[in-house]
Amino acid sequence: MADSRTPRSSEGLGSSSPAPAVTRAAAVLDALAEAPSGRLTLSDLSRELGIPKSSTSNLLMALEEARLITREGADFSLGRKLVELGAAYLSRLDEVQEFYKFCEQAPTLSGETVRIAMIDGDHIIYLARYEGHPAVRLTSNIGDKMPLSLSAVGKVLLAQLHDHDIEAMFPDDVELPVMTPKSLRSAAELKAQVAAIRKQGYALEDEESTLGVVCLAVPVPTHGAHGPSLGLSVTALKATFSEEQAALMVKELKELAHSLGNPMG
Amino acid sequence: MADSRTPRSSEGLGSSSPAPAVTRAAAVLDALAEAPSGRLTLSDLSRELGIPKSSTSNLLMALEEARLITREGADFSLGRKLVELGAAYLSRLDEVQEFYKFCEQAPTLSGETVRIAMIDGDHIIYLARYEGHPAVRLTSNIGDKMPLSLSAVGKVLLAQLHDHDIEAMFPDDVELPVMTPKSLRSAAELKAQVAAIRKQGYALEDEESTLGVVCLAVPVPTHGAHGPSLGLSVTALKATFSEEQAALMVKELKELAHSLGNPMG
DNA sequence: CACGCTTGTTCAATCCACTGAACAACCACC
DNA sequence: GGTGGTTGTTCAGTGGATTGAACAAGCGTG
User: Fold this and answer.
1) Domain A93-261's class?
2) Which of A67, A92, A135, A212 is a plausible cystine mate for A81, CB 3.0–4.6 Å?
């Protein structure tokens, strides 16, 4: 590691936050979350974020006192309080509770792997997972992120946005992340799919993120302000995937989406 | 609640953090997490935390920019990034991954509801849940907290601590939280149980948090520094709970605990 | 409608958190 | 042991974040 890791900031004062210490503290949390090992030393952080060591030390002490991070010898890592806070966020989403109930009772979905996700910047983030099918256990977990272009939920949520927003996120010469030979390569492909999704009302992901696995997704209608867009998806093995089954799943997903979108039931 | 909510701080400079803005930002997150509705306005926060409105405004703007909180009109609530960060924390715990694998293959446990928890101040916090028994779905979720004295895991983790630490947390005249008629009432009762747990190597919670539900728990041996103590528990309905079954469960829990405590396998 | 009481945002003066350099402790290598 | 590179901590000066008061906008109530 001669030239070490890429310092991400170096713009530093570009934003000029009204409370720089907080912004930097958040950057520390991000850095720890993205670090492969999950552990960084004071110097690592200072270097990577371009913050003087002395200031970094102060930040870390404050973060540790708040239990947002943990110190173990010279290494810092994320703290348990983050799990609490994340859980507090999720527990407030009534949609998640109803999601579980619905899945258990749905004729087809109750035997499948169903997930609910939310758009989060240029990614989606999984909020909950129902597993009626213990045979197929997903590697993805609650809180995991996926690029929009690589998941059925991502595409279906993208299709909900206005065209100019999509254009801003995916200019024609953008390079899309690729995970399998079937992953979408160009913005044009993506936009064509978006158009199709808008017509048919659901999205299909056909081995674009994992070979052998297909995914169907529908959007949850956002009745007014409330919050950011939610999406639902079913995951299945391509081998055991039929047209009729897909139709059933989409039908039930849409029912669930409708009941999530109209809270009274 | 005529006199409204209790302003929690008012000690203010007691701690004198090296980065007050960060400490206060953390307090904001805590307040939002504990607020019953999950939403507070700028003035609410300013009042409750004893921070001037103008400063609170700055904090909130910085927190919002970091997506640690979300603004909806005048209301602020926790942000999605917290789910990411919490998930990042959990994904680093190898124990959680192994926990799932083990549960699936264990003869008895694979059909039960098993959880792994961690001590967190004067509470426990649930890190993961395996549900082999869809009939009995727990209301508790990942990230939820429970008082030490009210859960089997809590008691078993308490038993791992030194006596003087226990004494500090539970002086003789302490008032324990009560959730059912069978909840422990006095520190003396709790300490008697701790002694018993140390002898037998596992803890039993007999309808102390929920009527009709029993819980068994064992500690995960912490091989040296690593991290805070972990505990495992099985939850069952009292109605369908037998001595022989309990013995089997404790045996498998101990196997799991052992394999978690000795990472190589 | 005017009133009282909220709310959140603006702005200049002050104070304190941030910084940089100097420090001590450590490790690896020769 | 000496030496060059680390590491994290300490501390006094200073520049910018914090703040209080003043502002504007909203909302019930009589």
Assistant:
1) alpha beta
2) A67
